[in-house]
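hey so i finally got around to running the thing on that chain from the lab meeting. sorry it took forever, my laptop kept dying and i had to restart like 3 times. anyway pasting the input first so we r on the same page abt which one it is
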Amino acid sequence: MALDNKTGSSGQNCGLGSRNSLILKIALFLNYLSKENHHKLLQDLEQRKNSSDIDILKLMQAKSYANQANILSLKKTCLSFARAQEDSRFGALCINFEFLTQSNLNLALDEQKNLLDEGRNIMLGELLVDAGMISERQRDLILQKQRLENNNTRKITPAEEITVASVADEPETQQKSPVFDKSRMREIRETGIILLVQNDALKAFMTKTKNFDNSMLLADLKFFLEKHGIIYGLVDDQSLEAFIKDEKYHNAFFKTAEGLEPIDGTDARVIYMFDRDYLKPGWLAEDGTIDFKERGEIPFVSSGDVLAEKIPPKEGKDGVSVYGDAIPRTNAMDISFVLGKGVRLSNDGLKIISEVNGNPKAKPSGEISVNDSYFIEGDVDYTTGHVKFDKNVYITGSIKNGFRVEAIDVVAKTIDGGIVKAQGDVFIQNGVTESVIEAKGNIKAGFMHRSKAACIGNMTIVKEVVDTEIILEGTFEMKQGRVFSSSITAKGGAKIYHIGSEKAAVSTITVGTSGYLEKELQNIDSAIERRQNLLETRTKEKNKIESELSVIREKLNNFDQSRQRTISMINEMKKDETGKMNEKIDLFQKSLDQADIKIHALNDEKALLETNFKKTTQDILSCAEAVKISVKDKFALKRLQQANPPKPILDVAGKVLAGTKVNGRYANMVLNRTLSRTRIMEINSRGDEGSKKGWEMIITNL
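ok and heres what got predicted. didnt touch it at all, straight out
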């Protein structure tokens, strides 16, 4: 949909006037006005003589075609759209249109920068729409505004006034001509000369036509070039004279001028002094046990160690076109360190230094931290209560029934009815029974019985999985173990030694898809919505308290002024030695006492409101910070989701029994016979004539 400030382009909108036409278009574009109500509104306008003079916003509100909140938003949007913008960058326009706050824009810009560091260049508008921060219609409206601003401000160089045309193919001379793409040249034909200027305006070339005047003076040639703006990097006079005299330039191209190419800046980069892809505490042996003594490959740092060093950006240099205009360089991108717990920034701001002894971590968001570990000798039970730490937790015993452990990495001997929520990895030396595990990293365990487990990373089980529900984004691996009566959903595929039993219920293996991250993203969206609603409620409360405080302060000020006047009058009356004013003094004193009582009550009310104001302000800050953290978490999960492509493949090194259900993303199958050393995968097959047949599960040998 194209928007402009002219009279409506359709027959329906004729006579509305540019203002009302713009309002109608934007109202429809942003769904403030339904098509049905739009039709009714036009009918209302047709019944009026001068529809261009009508305040269409008031008419929309009076007829209840749009509610008051939408009317106010529409008015602001129309004003912003019609007004010339000093800054037409996408983010600046989003803020001017009140589609976005500065804090949310900063988060999006940081995310765009992180993606660019990963080699993925995503437009800001697409990023904001994907994050749910603006709608697609709002994005399209901003893009339309940018087009209008660019059309109004773009300068046309002299060469751009000439149409681009291909130079006729001419026979080559024995002397080599410059090699370039003529279709990317601006062409000017005049006085027997063809002048070609590259679209980037870095080089200009000339050639002669058959109408060229060989008696042309050097001054005339220089005037021709200057007239068409060629003023920088021009060859010397001797070379220009050679062009005039030399007949070869009827067939060859003469490089007339060359600008200065810009030197782009070099982006900042970070060098990490520790291995970010390290194995966590505990080494999983072939027998399914974890050796807690084997910790040689785990990176640990001491207080004062340098964890990461930033190589600062190197600024580039602007270029110059043959027209003498500056060609801006691409500015170098800087990187801001994100400091987590246990680290500090060096004085020069270029290094991150550990403040504690512990295990260094680098999150996908870029945050660097050092977590000192916490050890529990024995079980997590009534002696310890629930365990919740923002560090790694090592448990030499078991996590007992009903007890919860929340930490970064969790290492334990067994889990017997417990609940584990880890921001990192989970390592269980023996096994898991009737428990629930959720991890943002990997899960490794000896066995898993009658439990539920979910993780973003990979899962490795050594011995056995029975009556268990597993969901993961990575790969499920069980090189020697067996799966009975279980459901396993693994986006990254599965490698299982043996599936099924004659006496057990059938198992379901789903590969290439997982709803884990989608569920997490839904939970984050719900949390953001709740906090935004609370933020709006607290903001209204704060504004109400501010208004009440303003009234009380005004009353106190009036009482204070009145009190001062009364005191002055009493002091003047006391100077009368006749005693005639004593009665009036008593009346004024009584009035003064009553005023003091009211002032005291107002001060109490003021103190209570100020306390509520501080609390509400703190709630607003907390909500805003919580929203900011949730948005960051959402961006991080989005990156993880895009970084892990689906792999709908099931490898069975041993046997998979008949009756086992195998699902892919789009196809599924139930095995009608027992198979050995088998690969089952989902493919998009084709028919005999090459046409797409559809998705199906196929079976091959390993």
